[in-house]
Amino acid sequence: MDRAEVDSRIRxxxxxxxxxxxxxxxxxxxxGDLEFDSLTVMDFVxxxxxxxxxxxxxxxxAEIEKYGQxxxxxxxxxxx
Amino acid sequence: MSEGISQPDQPEPHPGEGxxxxxxxxxxxxQRQALLDSGLEDPFNLVMEKVLSPTRAICNGRETILLGTxxxxxxxxxxxxxxxxxxxxxxxxxxxxxxxxLNGTYQGHRECEDALREFYGMDHxxxxxxxxxxxxxxxxxxxxxxDYVVLDIDSHASIWDGCALGNAEIVPFKHNDIEAMEKRxxxxxxxxxxxxxxxxxxxxxxxxxxxxxxxxxAKKYGAxxxxxxxxxxxxxxxxGRGVVETAGVIDDVDFIIGTFxxxxxxxxxxxVSNHPKFEIMRLVCRPxxxxxxxxxxxxxxxATSIRKLMHGSNKRAHLWxxxxxxxxxxxxxxxxxxxxxxxxxxxxxxxxxxERGAAMWEALLKExxxxxxxxxPATPANMxxxxxxxxxxxSSEQVETILDMFExxxxxxxxxx
Lengths: 80, 417
What we know:
By secondary structure, chain A is mainly α. Chain A has helices at about 5-15, 40-50, 60, 65-80. The longest helix of chain A is centred in the middle third of the chain and has 15 residues, at about 40-50. By secondary structure, chain B is α/β, with parallel strands linked by helices. Chain B contains 14 helices and 16 strands. In chain B, the strands form 4 sheets. A 7-stranded mixed sheet of chain B has the order 4-12-11-10-7-5-6, sandwiched between helices. In chain B, β8 and β9 (about 205-210) form a beta hairpin.
């Protein structure tokens, strides 16, 4: 799956969680810019896991702070 | 130290040249101060000056009914339990001063493990110094690098800390959601080791897990299953073995974790299992090895209490009656509760926010009733809860008194109309 496709699918998934309508770039942070709390993170991660049929363990989540890192991680996990 | 001579011309010391490591707690300190400045009694600094029985104490100078102690079966003042502790204290001294694997295993520790094996009908039992350490030790030790722990998002802190201490991949799923759990198990590489961690009763809302279905799903994917029965032991199930017993899955779970600090009425934790290699845990489980064992009096009280709990069916029946009466009464008064029907001996009353929850907590305390104030981040969905835990020693009259107190306090604080 190419990065552009992963990016566009995650962009549509993130919409209902992006309550303030923040403009999303690869450098957008989940905790800072999007103000995701732990419950939002769980629901958002579950939505991505279901969309791509992957698992993003909490250990992997800990490495992901920015939107671009998430897209990269999902590309890699979906290819495995 | 001081000679009493003031030295005003000394330069003022400058704290905070480097980064103050406590600055990360500033928002919590501020929140707590705001609560205290509003004139409320500190909900997290209550002192029991005298304990009169499993259900009554003198708290902050007032005689108080205890409805937040997890002392489900009221064993803390049982004469046989107290006598066993006194005898062990006299015969074996005040403490073991040693690890279970060195000089800290006395006859009493063995007898306590024998009692647990009998209670659960299992081959192995291992006693830890606290329930927290039992989860911490077992989870972090059996799930290693490359293994997966699949757990409910509302799991107790000791389960999360067991995950954090170990090196396994941690995969949470939505609370009590069988489908979400199955999806995650299905996506884990087939050859990986898998541990599913569940609780019989979730202590925040007092709801129980659908163990029959969840254990079946876990087994389908070749996962081992650990169930924490801290809040059900002694009470739920025909023999008080917990939700695993009611759900008929006790033979399918690999590990049951429990505690002595609730129904058993003292302190300590344990794991029981039928795994043929279980005994090796005593050598490899660090929270078991690198801490002192329980004092002889504690294991003696625990063993006596556990044996009495095997025959506690009348007390169990009365506790269910208390739980049903309180649940129905609070619902009738218009309080919002954590579960639609009483599922355990915990009844959680949902408060609109922390401020009003703290006000209600204080109003109840002034009425002479102690409940737990639970607040984020310990609670699911950032709720503020007044958590009530019933005791088999609460009389039916006490439960009626408790309902009257809730009615007056609820109206005074505007929680109910």
